[in-house]
UniProtKB/TrEMBL annotation:
<feature type="domain" description="Tr-type G">
    <location>
        <begin position="4"/>
        <end position="185"/>
    </location>
</feature>
<dbReference type="GO" id="GO:0045727">
    <property type="term" value="P:positive regulation of translation"/>
</dbReference>
<dbReference type="InterPro" id="IPR035647">
    <property type="entry name" value="EFG_III/V"/>
</dbReference>
<dbReference type="InterPro" id="IPR005225">
    <property type="entry name" value="Small_GTP-bd"/>
</dbReference>
<dbReference type="InterPro" id="IPR000640">
    <property type="entry name" value="EFG_V-like"/>
</dbReference>
<comment type="similarity">
    <text>Belongs to the GTP-binding elongation factor family. LepA subfamily.</text>
</comment>
<keyword id="KW-0547">Nucleotide-binding</keyword>
<dbReference type="InterPro" id="IPR035654">
    <property type="entry name" value="LepA_IV"/>
</dbReference>
<dbReference type="Pfam" id="PF06421">
    <property type="entry name" value="LepA_C"/>
</dbReference>
<dbReference type="InterPro" id="IPR038363">
    <property type="entry name" value="LepA_C_sf"/>
</dbReference>
<protein>
    <recommendedName>
        <fullName>Elongation factor 4</fullName>
        <ecNumber>3.6.5.n1</ecNumber>
    </recommendedName>
</protein>
<dbReference type="GO" id="GO:0043022">
    <property type="term" value="F:ribosome binding"/>
</dbReference>
<comment type="similarity">
    <text>Belongs to the TRAFAC class translation factor GTPase superfamily. Classic translation factor GTPase family. LepA subfamily.</text>
</comment>
<dbReference type="InterPro" id="IPR004161">
    <property type="entry name" value="EFTu-like_2"/>
</dbReference>
<feature type="binding site">
    <location>
        <begin position="16"/>
        <end position="21"/>
    </location>
    <ligand>
        <name>GTP</name>
    </ligand>
</feature>
<keyword id="KW-0472">Membrane</keyword>
<comment type="function">
    <text>Required for accurate and efficient protein synthesis under certain stress conditions. May act as a fidelity factor of the translation reaction, by catalyzing a one-codon backward translocation of tRNAs on improperly translocated ribosomes. Back-translocation proceeds from a post-translocation (POST) complex to a pre-translocation (PRE) complex, thus giving elongation factor G a second chance to translocate the tRNAs correctly. Binds to ribosomes in a GTP-dependent manner.</text>
</comment>
Length: 597
């Protein structure tokens, strides 16, 4: 395909606005895939993604389409639709010249619509504003176009109207992509420059590297060099995603596809790196992007200690396809041997945990999540802290710093008061409001990430009856009055229950954790004391009264089968208990801190 007939674009949208459905329509209408195959093979192929309706990994697809007697090669690059994966949006944008900005004609502009539109504008992409779901009886196109004008400077004359579900307006939208998105500028005869924007691990082929060629060309047998690491490889296969991997002889400037080169380890491939020809290298690399650092950490422990190696293996497997996830071994006196794991955000954490439980048959205990902190010590050294166990003694801490985010809420105007109160409660600093219309408003705050990760999203949904949406970006670290709060069960500090909290909320959090523990821990033959402490000073206490009667007394008379059942149940329960001193603590108790935000 001549470069002038190539178009590289993506679809950006708020979750549920119809991105996957539209991508399917593009494949159908261009004959890339048949109606029959569409269910079996869609752009988001992972089960979990399909179940949850979110796209996590970016899958590109190459489509051929004829218009006005010319054959065009369209590369559609999928983007994820959740705040945790915003950095992946930036990556895929870098491989495109244009983006379809898809907005639900009823719901209107949402938080991720605005965030993604601005990312695309910053990346210099041509936006094609598009209303989806125009088939809905209650669609309100004019109202939504008004919001788009206000929020992302859309020219109403440019708005396309489609129904991805019923297939209305799809050809017109394809034509708009061809007419409005610029062809890639690039020189096939110049030294090779290809940008790596994603990769996945294939058991048979090794690492499959996703590339966008900027200059030059690539073919099997060619010796290439990764510019950042100076590592060299020989290409074994070139291909395009249609949507399955399909081999081809060559890819040239402007094209999008993949290559394999017997690369065994996904860590050897740096997203954002430039691939060049080993013998005829480009003078300089493309501007890369920064790999995101995990911002949320939590401990992951096997319920049975002998499953530690199995857990390590399972985590290693996950890491093969997700370089943003990290894990390092750690030991806890309460939980034994486990791993400290790093995630991009709370959804990422949830997804990883579900995958682990699905793919391996491990029983896992997860400790409360915390954000990454920075501590400046009195000796001038700055350390990064991934968990409460790493916090040094208060005496050596000069400054305790936490990540701050800029968070935008898009909410019904009637909820402003409630939302502001909630933000103030969570140490938020008001930045601005912006009205999209009389009914809807954007509210911008700066807030500690720690306050966002607990259950802010759920709170937002309940305050706005489901109508509010949010999006955030990390601004950097700021000093705060933070402390490590320890929890003691019958005099023993349980490190897995320690949390880092703001001093002003410590007492409240401490009381809640203890109340939760009291519910979860069974009575013992002695009274069990529960305490929360900061640097040895007790700030809250509770106790669990001693057991007086035998549990089997609950069963009337002496029905032996019932007793047996009860004993069996207790034995079963025992497997999930951890012994802290003389006290049996059920695994649920370790999650007490999670629910006390
Ligand atoms: P995504 O999260 O942006 O990928 O959204 P999906 O493509 O998964 O669509 C979300 C929901 O909206 C699904 O239930 C779709 O069937 C529905 N949907 C998508 N496009 C249309 C449309 O044009 N009209 C109607 N009525 N529903 C649609
Ligand atoms: Mg989707």
């Amino acid at each position: 395909t001549p470069t002038s007939n190539i178009r590289n674009f993506c679809i950006i949208a708020h979750i549920d606005h119809g991105k996957s459905t539209l991508a399917d329509q593009f494949l159908l209408k261009t004959g890339t895939i048949s109606e029959r195959d569409i269910k079996a093979q869609t752009l988001d192929s992972m089960d979990l993604e399909r179940e949850r309706g979110i796209t996590i990994r970016m899958h590109p697809v190459t489509i051929y389409y004829e218009l006005g007697g010319r054959k065009y090669e369209l590369n559609l690059i999928d983007t994820p639709g959740h705040v945790d994966f915003n950095y992946e949006v930036s990556r895929s944008l870098a491989a495109c010249e244009g983006a379809v900005l898809l907005v639900d004609a009823f719901q209107g502009v949402q938080a991720q619509t605005v965030a993604n539109a601005f990312l695309a504008m910053e990346a210099g992409l041509k936006l094609i504003p598009t209303l989806n779901k125009i088939d809905l009886a209650h669609a309100r196109p004019d109202f939504v176009i008004g919001e788009m004008e206000q929020a992302v400077f859309t020219d109403p004359a440019e708005v396309m109207r489609v129904s991805a579900k019923s297939g209305i307006g799809i050809e017109d939208l394809l034509a708009a992509v061809i007419e409005r998105v610029p062809a890639p500028a690039g020189d096939s005869t110049a030294p090779l420059k290809a940008m790596i924007y994603n990769s996945h691990f294939d058991t048979y082929k090794g690492v499959v590297v996703y590339v966008r060629l900027i200059d030059g060309s690539m073919k099997p047998g060619q010796r290439i060099k990764m510019m950042r690491t100076a590592r060299e490889y020989v290409i074994t296969e070139m291909g395009q995603f249609r949507p399955g991997m399909e081999k081809c002889d060559e890819l040239a400037a402007g094209q999008v596809g993949y290559f394999t080169a017997n690369i065994k380890n996904i860590q050897d491939v740096n997203i954002g790196d430039t691939v060049t020809d080993a013998f005829n290298p480009a003078a300089e690399a493309l501007a890369g992007y920064k790999e995101p650092k995990p911002m949320v950490y939590s401990g992951l422990y096997p319920v049975n200690n002998h499953e530690f190696e199995d857990l390590r293996e399972a985590l290693g497997k996950l890491k093969l396809n997700d370089s943003s996830f990290t894990f390092t071994p750690e030991v806890s006196d309460g939980l034994g041997f486990g791993f400290r794991c790093g995630f991009l955000g709370m959804l990422h954490r949830e997804i990883i945990q579900q995958r682990l439980e699905r793919d391996s048959e491990l029983n896992l205990v997860q400790t409360a999540p915390n954000v990454t902190f920075e501590i400046l010590k009195n000796n001038g050294e700055t350390v990064t802290v991934h968990g409460p166990q790493d916090v040094p003694d208060a005496g050596v801490i000069k400054e305790f710093r936490e990540p701050i985010v800029k968070i935008s809420f898009l909410i019904p105007a009637g909820n402003i008061g409630d939302l502001m109160a909630m933000c103030t409660d969570r140490r938020g600093t008001f930045i601005r409001t912006e009205y999209l219309s009389q009914q809807r408003v954007i509210l911008v705050y700066e807030m500690p990430l720690a306050e966002v990760i607990y259950d802010l999203y759920d709170k937002l949904k309940s305050v706005t009856h489901g109508y509010g949406t949010m999006d955030y970006e990390v601004l950097g670290y700021r000093t705060a009055d933070l402390v490590r709060m320890d929890i003691m069960v019958h005099g023993n500090r349980v490190d897995a229950l320690s949390i880092i909290v703001h001093r002003s909320t410590a007492e409240r959090r401490g009381r809640k954790v203890l109340q939760k523990l009291r519910e979860e821990i069974d009575r013992h033959l002695f009274e069990v004391a529960l305490q929360a402490a900061i640097g040895g000073r007790i700030i809250a206490r509770e106790s669990i009264a001693a057991l007086r009667k035998n549990v089997t007394a609950k069963c009337y008379g002496g029905d032996i089968t019932r007793k047996r059942k009860l004993w069996a149940k207790q034995a079963e329960g025992k497997k999930r208990m951890k012994q802290i001193g003389q006290v049996e603590v059920p695994q649920e108790a370790f999650l007490a801190v999670l629910e006390s935000g």
